Amino acid sequence: MLTVGRYLGHWHTMTRTAHVARVAKQHPEPLLEVHPADAQRHGLSDGSPAEVISRRGAVAARVQITDRIRPGTVFLPMHWGASQPNACEANRLMHEQACEHSKQPELKAAAVRLRSLP
Predict the structure, then answer these.
(1) Closest to 108 in 3D by CA, of 86, 89, 93
(2) Phi then psi dihedrals of residue 5, to 5 deg
(3) What is the DSSP string of 51-107?
(4) What residue ranges do the domains of the chain occupy?
(5) With 106 labelled, which of 4, 5, 61, 96 sits at a CA distance of 20 to 30 A?
(6) What pTM value is reported for the model?
(7) How many CB atoms lie within 10 A of CB 94?
(8) Quick check: helix, strand or coil at residue 94?
(9) Which residues share a beta bridge with 5?
(10) Over the stretch 31-40, which tens digit does the pLDDT of each residue have?
(11) What is the pLDDT along the chain (118 residues), one digit of tens a residue?
(12) Per CATH, is 2-116 categorized as 3.40.630.30?
């Protein structure tokens, strides 16, 4: 299950915060957070590239193995869109469900597969 969110300090799709040196240094690229058990099961190693695949598309990111994430769940930050040097459009993997009243997209979670990249 993929869940997306933001790194502390990243706002406005990074159109502003990407220019803050301290923030850019703290999070220079989007990382795919994977639990150690899931990393082992999918043949992923810390720092290696991986592909995250849903029914709607795929993105690539470098793996960060961490026990801060639950087994069966992976995390990607949502602020690396097409305008960023390390584009990783996590929201493209999400489904199109939205609130019928506000039209706010439901971008919280989606089923995905992981694949190690060379």
Answers:
(1) 93
(2) -170, -165
(3) EEEETTEEEEEEEEE-TTS-TT-EEEES---TTSTT---GGGGS---B-TTT--B--
(4) 2-116
(5) 61
(6) 0.83
(7) 22
(8) coil
(9) 77
(10) 999 999 999 9
(11) 999 887 766 666 656 666 677 777 777 788 999 999 999 999 999 999 999 999 999 999 999 999 999 999 999 988 767 766 677 788 888 877 888 888 877 777 899 999 999 9
(12) no
| Nearest by Cα to 8 from 27, 36, 34, 29 | 27
3-class DSSP string for 17-61: HHHCHHHHHHCCCCEEEECHHHHHHHCCCCCCEEEEEECCEEEEE
pLDDT in tens, 63-77: 999 999 999 999 998
Question: How many residues are recorded in the chain?
Answer: 118
